[in-house]
Amino acid sequence: MKRHLRKSLRAAIVAAVIALPVAAATPASDPTAPQRTLRPFSGEPELAALFRRWVDEAERRRGEQRARQSAGGSAALAQAAPAAAPAALAKEAAAATADSLTNVQHAGVDEGGIVKLHGDHLVILRRGRLFTVRVGDDELRPVAVVDAWGQGIDPAGAWYDEMLIAGDTIVVIGFSYARGGTEIGVFDISRAGRIAHRSTLHLRSNDYYSSRNYASRLIGSRLVIYSPHFLNPWGDPHAAFPALRRWRPGASPADFRRIAPATRIYRSDEPLDPFAGVALHSVTICDLAAPQVDCQSTAVLGPPGRVFHVSPRSVFVWATQPRRGGDAAQPASAVFRIPLDGSPPSALKASGSPIDQFSFHEDAGGMLNVLLRADGGGDGMWEVELGGGDLALLRVPLASFSDGREAAPAAAYRRLPPVADKALQNRFVGPFLLYGGGSGWRAPRATQRAGLYVVRHAEGRVYELPLPHAVDRIEALGSNALVVGSDGRDLQFSSVRLGRLPVTVDRYTRGDAAQGETRSHGFFYKPVGEDDGLLGLPISGGGEAAGRQLRQASAAVLFLRNRGLALSELGTLDGRRAAAERGDGCRASCVDWYGNSRPLFIGSRVFALIGYEIVEGRVGPQRIVERRRLDFAPVVQQVAP
Hints:
Blueprint: H1 8-14, E1 39-40, H2 44-70, H3 74-80, E2 110-111, E3 115-118, E4 121-126, E5 129-134, E6 141-147, E7 158-166, E8 169-176, E9 181-189, E10 195-204, E11 216-219, E12 222-230, E13 243-246, E14 257-258, E15 265-267, E16 279-287, E17 295-302, E18 305-310, E19 314-320, E20 333-339, E21 346-350, E22 353-354, E23 360-362, E24 367-375, E25 388-397, E26 403-407, E27 413-416, E28 423-429, E29 432-438, E30 450-456, E31 461-467, E32 473-477, E33 480-486, E34 491-497, E35 503-510, E36 513-515, E37 524-527, E38 532-541, E39 556-563, E40 566-574, E41 597-602, E42 605-610, E43 613-619, E44 624-631
Parallel strand pairs: 15-17, 21-26
Antiparallel strand pairs: 1-15, 2-11, 3-4, 4-5, 5-6, 7-8, 8-9, 9-10, 10-13, 11-12, 12-16, 13-14, 16-17, 18-19, 19-20, 20-21, 22-24, 23-24, 24-25, 25-27, 28-29, 29-30, 30-31, 32-33, 33-34, 34-35, 36-38, 37-38, 38-39, 39-40, 41-42, 42-43, 43-44
Helix pairs in contact: 2-3
């Protein structure tokens, strides 16, 4: 694990941060408009001059190493070796509309997922293939299956992770280790559920994978993708810049076209040390309504650790620099606000790091609220499961964002009670922030007492609600909340009323069970009235580690009824197919990094997606019963040798 920030957040809370002078705010019709914005590079010459300085410094360091080597100072050479630039690790580590199937953070901002609805058809991304299943006219019938990559593309070393649908266009977001970048597969889907590959775009980037976040969002017809680009001072930094090519037979690196010119690359006044790690944080927007999909990027230079959050108007990128000596009282992070309308980004210096995308909240008063912890390296790969340290709530006006010279003042940080568990869960629900600790991807631990903390973020008042189980998931139930967690043996669901005085209302216990999915999309809540609704969550056997979801489908999907925060079981829809996926002819994405089971609510119908099975249930007054099921696994012809 890379070294992270030490004591910076605590220092920012207890010591005043001396900011540079702030110019008078520029009048604007938007009260959240920044005072000033970041400065872009004036052109390619200025950007090239920066990189030449990096190369000169790299040569100087090489010379020092050679001198020490010739003097026999092997130990000194080891000390002088530059810190390795962050590397993308391989994945080897073991409601906007009424018909939305995705548990999203913001209405109107859809998130990449494994199942979507197009007219009368479910579209499912599963183990490197796209499937369509007709559910219209009270049917449950398979229609089509196609590979998630284009004709002539070798899928070896590629992972096809996320899917979105805009109109009659399907986009599949993947990452290819063989080709070194993000793949954007564009497919057409007909009203009959037939799918045809249109084109594939390759976006040069480092690996975007996060154990919690999703790389892609859809706002209207605009596809939004966050990508990190780690710059190497020992080589040509330009080689890592955002660039795009259209796949064709015989495609080569020369086909890449830069989509982030120097005049769309921004930085603050913070000195950058490429030998400690510098990333080009890129936000790429593609217009899916265009006859030929094209993309453009805006990027900011900053520290390598990252957490990003997409709101309806902006992308927030929180970049963190691991600290190696120096004044711990000075901010070591920056939060960038990149508008989706193409206007220039703005920034604030800050301390600490958010837990994940759910750590951000823009409230109606124009304030940005962010839950921070002192030791965190962002949400890349498994970093989000490993952080720790003091906790604080940062609360700043969006209008205080500027050209990156100003820092969030010490008074903007509010210390919060600590949580012992590293696998922290957090969620903003209306005027409240809720957080607590759980097991994360590990096996559940015996828990006699845990604390759920509820914070009124505008006033800073903190309430602790004792729970007899860990906090492994926090979800909104309308204006209230649900907390899900294990006590080491059983899975428990606690409803929380978020009123004048937050209080737990009811608790449901599912014996000998654990969460079958940890990603946010594994849960779904369908309101059927102001205080009533149905909820679903995949489950597995009690005591099983959450990491099993990578290789095995959930045992069942559990459905509960919420009536005024009183929880009662409706029952489960169970999977029958063997856990092993032998015989499906999988060629790519043969590990379920993004999950494989989902509760689905389509109109008045209820389904459970469990691996290659779709089970439809009928909800009665007291119970849900199976109505029918479909096994849509591909049939692979066996050819005799």
